[in-house]
Design goal:
Two copies of one chain form a homodimer.
Chain A: H1 2-19, H2 23-32, H3 35-43, H4 47-56, H5 59-66, H6 76-82, H7 85-94, H8 97-104, H9 109-118, H10 121-131, H11 138-141, E1 148-149, H12 155-165, E2 174-178, E3 184-189, H13 190-195, H14 202-205, E4 213-214, H15 219-229, E5 233-237, E6 243-248, H16 249-268, H17 279-306, H18 308-313, H19 316-319, H20 321-345, H21 353-383, H22 386-416, H23 426-452
Parallel strand pairs in A: 1-2, 4-5
Antiparallel strand pairs in A: 2-3, 5-6
Helix pairs in contact in A: 1-2, 5-7, 7-9, 8-10, 15-16, 17-23, 20-22, 20-23, 21-22, 22-23
């Protein structure tokens, strides 16, 4: 709490410096703060105040701060637009390449070209290279600011290289060893450099079994490698082992957050990454799913209307519609969540399609049996009619089993077909399960109609 | 792919070494592998083979490998139990303290005491200290293997300290500056040490605005600080600024994974962290929720049974029960997911309870209006009865609005009461919304009964 107060006090001082044109005081106070806090302050300013900031800070100083502002911040575009183009271009080239690319990717092609034309050729070409990688691949999240050395040198000379590249490299804690063709031969950690004698040869120290990822690898697989090995950075190579860049752990945290949000969104049938407080906007994002599912729900209604004569004969049947569809829907949602999780965790080879489905159907049978017997007893006593209880219990058993089948089969099919299994949303499964549950329920009911009405 | 083959080949060689008692070859090959791969190999062995491993490797060598095996691995207990107690105790004291504590926490008190009594006093007391911290706090995930120095020395002497502590410290990339009472005064990164001259004083280099967390802070808040500042480690202090330990980014990735899994589990109404392929076990974990919700669903059935006479008069009403409950349930799930997300993201001060609820109800009104009008038109034409269409549309509008209210109000109330809002599960909201939807539907229907039957 008092840390927050201290920070707010700093912000107040900074604002005063800005308004009173105390450029020197402002710079000292501002540059002393952590870059994340610099970003917080910068984002709290008005348009006019930010224009002053661009005259107080160098493009390099602004770049350090821009490196930590979330790239999905909606205002980033506007910030860029309000700077002088040459200032913005210089700032972009001072940012870590991966962050600059993320930022440029939010602009249209014409603007990107404008900024690239204002940079020096080398920076522009590095950025251009990264702009081409597909979304969600290792290439799209890597940066080119790594430290590489050749093997044929001592710890002392490697430390010398490090000292001089430390300022621009995104991490100096791993040093990659390459040959003349820039092919990755080994890796050595700064920790190894520190604990070993200055005269030791790098070739004797380096680990030759480098864990690396390919530039086209899915970012989720890259995240899994980070989890397994507890690395702080991983080298990215092409398919002939040429070192292209590195992925750092802070980018991986973003990947993990994004994937979790997308799984969660799938289950909920709403994109939670765009949490807006504007009810109209929020509604417009939720309606497409709701209306689509409304039409799917209409087929359930149509199905029930076929059984309307059954209901008018035995209105008691209407009493249990929502109980059966609801319970089956709950079971289907559980099944869906487990299937999506299992697909995310399992290695390729472990994905024995048939076995997983079989196990899920069996789970459905067991839960269905327990739930069915429970409701059989309740309805039997409540309505004093054990045949009706049997119909409801039987329908429950079948509906739950089918819901479990649908909840596991659909995400697995999507996975097989190359889609993200998480887009098989929870609401979709429950609405689909409404349809099958109603069909099962009325089929069984019509078979036993004459008995329980007696 | 060929990386995997290479690894499998290594595993085959290792197994052969083990079976043929080639201890020297085994040790060379084994220790050359990355510790994660060592763990993979170790876990693939039979009980007998593992017993041989314990004679080939020192407790320290085994400890390095145990540091990366997931602490939630069910077999860890058995591994410990099969080692000689003194070997196990030595291994535990060689592990990073946080990992040793995680492992010990899976054992019962008597066993913990046994291992602690076999360790040397200092190691035992460090572990004992950490065992006391509450789950899910910074204290429970921190480790005590950090590097600290006093300010009054040069870069050269700090590097000397670092060299000698590098072997035991979990990270050497941040060095914490403390006073005689071990109170945190500043921090300096290894990067700063490397780029500065050997004679520079630490006091001139260190950053005095240290970002730290308190030992009792929630681990989610710690994770958020990592996200904001892109740190690799954070110091943990007591409330008088004494440095107690550090949290490293690899532990934070576990925290982020756990929290995502628990949010997802909440929405699905099933614990996805225990994905089992045994259908009986899986069923036993899903049934408690299903049966609980079955009883809640029974109240919906009871409610409908009060309207049974209405249904027997107008069996067409039964046709739309599942459409209305299903659509309202879908809307409620969306609302729940957004509310849980918003609560996770928002700062304390931003959580204006009334405003968030109001905005969610408004979103419900808008989505309800659009959905209601759609279904009014569909039912009107389909059944040739626009009064019936009006009843269904009106019920839809009200049911969706109420579902949105419930979906946002319930997690927010839970948050206010100090519970994790994510435990308000999706299935609970849909089942609750079934009840309110049916009540709304039949109330409106009974009001307009005489009109649409005409």
């Amino acid at each position: 709490m008092d840390e927050n107060q201290e920070l707010e006090e700093q912000f107040a001082f900074l604002l005063k410096d800005l308004q009173e044109n105390n450029i020197q005081e402002f710079r000292e106070r501002f540059l002393e703060m952590h870059i994340y806090e610099q970003g917080q302050f910068y984002q709290s300013l008005t348009d006019e105040e930010r224009l002053v900031v661009y005259t107080y800070l160098s493009p390099k100083e602004l770049a350090d701060m821009f490196d930590v502002i979330e790239e999905d911040n909606e205002n980033m575009k506007d910030y860029l637009a309000e700077m002088r183009p040459s200032y913005a271009a210089e700032m972009l080239s001072e940012m870590y390449t991966d962050n600059a690319v993320d930022l440029l990717n939010t602009l249209d092609k014409k603007q990107i070209a404008k900024y690239l034309s204002l940079m020096d050729a080398e920076d522009a070409s590095e950025i251009k290279d990264l702009l081409h990688y597909e979304d969600d691949t290792a290439g799209s999240i890597m940066t080119t600011e790594y430290v590489s050395i050749v093997a044929n040198q001592t710890v002392r000379s490697a430390m010398y290289v490090l000292k001089h590249e430390a300022d621009v490299a995104e991490t100096i804690y791993y040093i990659y060893v390459v040959n003349q063709e820039n092919q990755l031969l080994g890796v050595i950690s700064l920790r190894d450099l520190i604990v070993n004698e200055d005269d030791t040869m790098i070739s004797d120290l380096m680990s030759e079994r480098v864990i690396s990822v390919h530039v086209g690898d899915d970012q989720e697989d890259v995240a899994q490698t980070f989890r397994d090995y507890d690395f702080l950075a991983l080298p990215v190579t092409d398919y002939d082992d040429h070192l292209l860049g590195i992925v750092t752990v802070d980018d991986i945290i973003d990947v993990i957050d994004d994937e979790a949000a997308s799984d969660y969104s799938g289950l909920a049938g709403v994109n939670i990454e765009e949490v807006s407080e504007n009810p109209l906007k929020a509604a417009s994002r939720r309606l497409p799913w709701l209306i689509t599912l409304l039409f799917l729900g209409m087929s359930t209604a149509t199905l029930i209307s076929h059984y309307e004569s059954l209901v008018s004969e035995a209105s008691i049947l209407a009493v249990f519609i929502s109980l059966i569809t609801g319970t089956a829907g709950n079971a289907g949602t559980q099944s869906l969540a487990v299937a999506v999780r299992r697909l995310a965790l399992a290695d390729e080879k472990d994905n024995n399609f048939a076995r997983l489905i079989f196990s899920e159907v069996l789970t459905g049978l067991v839960t269905g049996l327990v739930t069915g017997i429970t409701i059989f007893i309740i309805v039997g006593f409540w309505q004093g009619n054990f045949i009706l209880g049997f119909v409801i219990g039987m329908a429950m058993l079948c509906a739950i089993t089918v819901a479990n089948l649908a909840g596991s089969l659909i995400p697995m099919l999507m996975d097989k077909l190359g889609f993200d299994p998480a887009v098989a949303s929870g609401p979709f499964i429950t609405t689909l399960s409404d349809l099958t549950s109603v069909l099962i329920y009325f089929s069984i009911a019509s078979m036993f109609m004459s008995y329980f009405l007696a």
